[in-house]
Design goal:
hydrolase activity, mainly alpha, flat, single chain, transmembrane helix
Length: 184
């Protein structure tokens, strides 16, 4: 009999498979006249990835109930949890790319609204608060506490994504002028 844990892995997986199409097969994405064909290609790729990751999560979660040993069950559930979290992790990282926004300007205004923007601001405010109060917050890495400005800035994001800094630099080169105008 499947457990509550298996259900908690399966429910988001089913939602992911259906949700990607429910959220994107409309005028904001697939039928958006402002989107060029290559953007539609990547949207289709993302929707298909959601289905594949959701199906793999379902497979590993459900099969765990029928495996003979506790070790096999645990490994299958771990795999289901890892695969099931990949779409969310990649979705949360999307705002880190230069020029990205959670919503197109014609739909949400020039700034849009995106959960990553708010979570990044919370991280930065926590860092700034720790710096101002001379306290050390173990959740915020030491590298993030060295900044002297309260504004959320690109160097903080570079530090957070330090392992991809060379890639980040290459991608953000066309946006350097834009960045300078924002920072000032």
């Amino acid at each position: 009999m499947p457990s509550v844990g298996i259900f908690l892995l399966c429910f988001p997986a089913v939602f992911l498979c259906a949700g990607a199409f429910l959220a994107d097969f409309n005028e904001t994405h697939v039928y958006n006249p402002n989107w060029p064909p290559h953007a539609r290609f990547h949207n289709g790729q993302t929707m298909s990835m959601a289905v594949v990751l959701g199906a793999a999560t379902l497979w590993y979660a459900i099969r765990s109930a029928y495996l003979p040993t506790p070790t096999q069950k645990r490994e299958s559930l771990f795999t289901a949890a890892m695969i099931g979290s990949m779409y969310a992790v990649t979705g949360l990282s999307a705002i880190l790319y230069p020029g990205s926004a959670g919503c197109d300007p014609d739909l949400c205004g020039p700034e849009g609204t995106f959960v990553q923007k708010h979570s990044s601001n919370v991280i930065e405010l926590g860092r700034y608060d720790a710096e101002q109060n001379a306290t050390v917050n173990p959740v915020i890495p030491a590298a993030l506490r060295g900044s002297k400005s309260p504004e959320f800035h690109f160097e903080t994001m570079r530090t957070m994504a330090g392992c991809v800094a060379p890639i980040w630099d290459a991608m953000s080169q066309p946006y350097e002028d834009e960045r300078e105008s924002i920072v000032r």
